[in-house]
Write a structure and sequence with these properties.
- Pathway: Carbohydrate metabolism; Entner-Doudoroff pathway.
- The protein is α/β, with parallel strands linked by helices.
- Helices cover about 40% and strands about 15% of the residues.
- The chain has an 8-stranded mixed beta sheet with strand order 7-8-12-11-10-9-13-14.
- The radius of gyration is 24 Å and the shape is globular.
């Protein structure tokens, strides 16, 4: 199957746009790969420090035998259910490396915060910037410069993009990403959402809400909805940076150990029957690889957060993408899955239906992904259309084998490209006199794709929640929440607004959210124009909106506009953030330390990067 002409067109446009930046990046990789190994290149004192803490046999292998040394960067902590399983991975990795005549060292750890813990709290204002902190932490770890390859241990929202941005600064090394899998299914996501809506109306008390939440989030592993964390895993599969089919195997599954050992074999080039010269990560992540990730995101109705994160990831590899690229791809990429919030199934049901392997196989078969890309495996991206199975003990070689993920085992969850849920992808670009923004339409009912209603302007999500509780929003309304962009307060997710807005929509009102902030990767059925750029704090048009202005959000036409006479709009003065609000948004719980990041942050469409 030849590649779809729009996929080719977008890829070629990205390649041309990125030509100079990408060439400089590849030249840097080539220069780094020409150097001697770390233990040969560095001074004796440097090497002695690097191996002082490892067992004697490992010292011999690294220094005298010149064996490959794998650096491990881990996002382990036991605050995050998704990262708690990583506690014992380093010992497993070291054991497998020694079996293969290599060594492994934990190069460093990176912070990993849970948005589920910080949603609606001041701590959420550090969430987006934690991605760049993680990238810097990854760079600090690998800067020891003693490694021949690396394994990245991370799963959740900002952690994987941060690890990937940091890893790409060391683009001369082979690298494999190692996930931990989703938690077993508990209370269904739709049932949990219903209890949240009832709590927002005062129909369920704290005890009832706590019981529901504890039943939903109940074990180690990622949350089971298809939010940013699980979208991360889908994209890494589509980029060929995992062991194939690794994403959604649960932490307690015996195959998990085998797949982690396979990651060691993969990064050393010993996973296939014949030795494989594993390409450097900077060579794997090229324009075609980035487009494959974008297509996979659209085909699965994935997280809107990746319209920020993957812009930053691409930039780290010398590649420039923008929201126009996503929008053009979305016009031709069909929606192949229904996973909550785009449906009732969770990621465990998605995996049972065929998971990422099924989706990748369908996209390759339809010519919607580039087949001629490098991956960390000898078989290329075609291997990622398979699903792993296990025979024997996890520590035995040859224990894993792969079978085709097709056909779908449940077409209510995953459909073939010839019979999609929708002919177009789940994300849309909106443009108009309020700026540029994006909307996730895959979970929004068709009759809600166009909303026209008077604006109610809020300076914080807390103000909106108070207005809802007071009954002030029981009408058709477009809620404008401003001062939520990267420069204002770090661009927190506003997922706590989902229950009240869902209640209003459930009452039959036409409701929409317009904001320069983010929604959760689990944003659902309420139409939301998010990431509005330029943001209000940077002088963007949202700062000119007033209560009562008529706003039209049209996801069909791709427009977002305030319906104010042009002459009046041109002369209207923009509001500015009050000194009190800037003080409140920038102080307490460590937020003072991120003032420089707020000052330097690029716009959402530029990845909200703080390092450019």
């Amino acid at each position: 199957m030849s590649t779809h002409p729009i996929v080719t067109q977008v890829t070629e446009r990205i390649r041309a746009r990125s030509q100079d930046l990408r060439a400089a990046y590849l030249a840097q990789i080539a220069q780094m790969r020409q150097r001697d190994r770390g233990s040969d290149r560095m001074g004796c004192a440097n090497v002695a420090h690097a191996v002082a803490g490892v067992p004697g046999n490992d010292k011999l292998r690294i220094v005298a035998e010149r064996a490959p040394n794998i650096g491990v960067v881990t996002a382990y902590n036991d605050m995050l259910s998704a990262h708690a399983p990583f506690q014992h991975y380093p010992d497993l990795i070291k054991h497998e490396a020694r079996r293969l005549g290599a060594t492994a060292q934990v190069a460093g750890g990176v912070p990993a915060m849970c948005d589920g813990v910080t949603q609606g709290t001041p701590g959420m204002e550090l969430s987006l910037f934690s991605r760049d902190v993680i990238a810097m932490g990854t760079a600090v770890a690998l800067t020891h410069d003693m490694f021949d390859a690396a394994l990245m241990l991370g799963v959740c929202d900002k952690i994987v993009p941060g690890l990937l941005i940091g890893a790409l600064q060391f683009g001369h090394l082979p690298m494999v990403f190692v996930p931990a899998g989703p938690m077993p299914s508990g209370l269904s996501n739709s049932a949990k959402a219903k209890v949240r809506e009832q709590a927002a109306q005062g129909l369920v008390g704290r005890d009832g809400l706590m019981k529901a939440e504890m039943a939903a989030y109940h074990d180690q592993g990622t949350c089971t909805f298809y939010g940013t964390a699980n979208s991360n895993q889908m994209l890494l599969e589509a980029m060929g940076l995992h062991v194939p089919g690794t994403a959604f195997i649960q932490p307690g599954d015996s195959m998990r150990e085998a797949l982690t050992r396979e990651a060691v074999r993969t990064v050393l080039g010993k996973a296939a029957a014949q030795p494989f010269d594993v390409p450097a990560i900077g060579e794997v992540v090229d324009e075609r690889c980035i487009v494959n990730a974008m297509v996979a995101l659209l085909a699965t109705g994935g997280s809107t957060n990746h319209l920020i994160h993957w812009v930053a990831v691409a930039r780290a590899a010398g590649i420039l993408i923008d929201w126009n690229d996503f929008s053009e791809l979305s016009d031709v990429v069909p929606l192949l899955t229904r996973v909550y919030p785009n449906g009732s199934a969770d990621v465990n049901e998605f995996q049972a239906a065929g998971g990422p392997g099924f989706v990748i196989g369908e996209l390759l078969g339809a010519g919607l992904m580039h087949a001629d890309v490098l991956t960390v495996r000898a078989g290329g991206i075609a291997e990622y259309a398979n699903i792993p199975h296990m025979r024997g003990e996890p520590s035995a070689e040859g224990v894993l084998h792969w079978e085709s993920a097709a056909p779908s085992k449940n077409e209510a969850v995953a459909r073939p490209a010839a019979n999609p849920f929708s002919a177009t992808g789940g994300l849309k670009l909106l443009q108009g006199n309020l700026g540029r923004s994006v909307i996730k339409v895959s979970s929004v009912p068709d009759d809600r794709h166009v909303v026209e209603a008077p604006a109610r302007v809020f300076d914080s999500q807390g103000e909106l929640q108070k207005a809802f509780a007071a009954g002030e929003l029981d009408r058709d309304v477009v809620c404008v929440v401003r001062w939520q962009g990267p420069q204002a307060n770090g661009m927190p997710e506003l997922h706590k607004l989902t229950p009240p807005l869902s209640v209003l929509q459930g009452k039959g009102f036409k409701v929409a959210l317009v904001t320069d902030g983010r929604m959760s990767g689990a944003s659902g059925k309420v139409p939301a124009a998010i990431h509005v750029s330029p943001e209000a704090a940077a002088g963007g048009p949202l700062a000119k909106v007033r209560d009562g202005d008529l706003i039209r959000l049209d996801a069909v036409a791709g427009t977002l506009a305030v319906l104010v006479p042009e002459a009046e709009w041109a002369t209207r003065t923009a509001d500015t953030m009050s000194a009190e609000q800037r003080l409140a948004d920038g102080h307490g719980l460590g937020r003072e330390l991120f003032a420089g990041m707020r000052r330097n942050a690029r716009a959402a469409e530029e990845g909200a990067c703080t390092w450019l």
